[in-house]
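Troubleshooting: if your tokenizer reports a length mismatch, compare your output against this known-good record of 350 residues.
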Amino acid sequence: KHILISAMSYGALGKNAVQALARGAKMSGIPMNTGEGGYPKYHLMEDADLIFQLGTAKFGVRHEDSSLNDSKLAEIAQLDQVRMIEIKLSQGAKPGKGGMLPKEKISEEIAELRGIPRDRDAISPSSHKECKDLASTVAFLRRVQEVSQLPVGMKLCIGCLDEFRGLIREMKRQGTFPDYFALDGGEGGTGAAPKAFMDHVGLPILPALHGVQTILLEEKVRDQTKILSAGKLISPGEQLVAMALGADAVYTARGFLLALGCIQALQCGKNTCPAGITTHDPTLTKGLVINSKAERVYHYANALERELLELLAASGCSSIQDLTPKNLFIPVGSILAPLSVATPQAPVIS
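Known-good structure output:
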């Protein structure tokens, strides 16, 4: 399987939506990211393989000042269904900015799972308290690896490739690498992000992928880590392009939200989602029937995988690892124009 369900928290999503996604993930045999919403109570109910996301507020594994509580992280890492930990540095829809769960959406249960009070909005800061510079960021990665004893990834949206190269060189200096980088494109979305950030901040996923792949190869550390790609990659053709540019697998949240019935009403942060997905209002969530929506998640995941393999066969490749930019037609003048010096072979997409 090359498709994963991207980070979506309980709190941002209602429990029916979380359970439908997790049940569909279990049915299709793919992992699901918990998002940064704290203890993954409803994710765990469906027995899917989980990636526990460690956000800047450390919900579920935090001290009161948003610093990491090692013992709570160790407890979550010992859960059978939790297979990996993901440190979220930034998000494609709003890189360089934190997040907020309005107090109107904070039930007693959510407060308990996140370790937060109910009388105020829950704020995720723009950065991790422990990450002051490159050296401390890599040291924090190593700390999470040592505490969890699980594979650990890092999620980020690229703002400057030179900064990413600096991060890689610091990782080389300390001898510490994540098991994967989850690259989120600047086109990544959530209806709760500021429009200026959604529209204008962060490197788009395709040049980000090519840049990161190039840096990892030039620094001779490509074999030390994997690349997961996100950023509106909801169709098999788009996902195959990402893999040709270096991705080992693909995250998608939007695709699975659409499978649940999302109509993109952009009311994600208001507790008024008409599709019953990003709300805890029982009059709205009752319309999201877990069994039927889980079936839709299952069929979407399986259709993606089937069509991905069909496109791969059409390209003349026997595996994802055989894909390169030479399998792409890249028009002159596009954002990836420097790659067009390679003669396309068996074009996949135009």
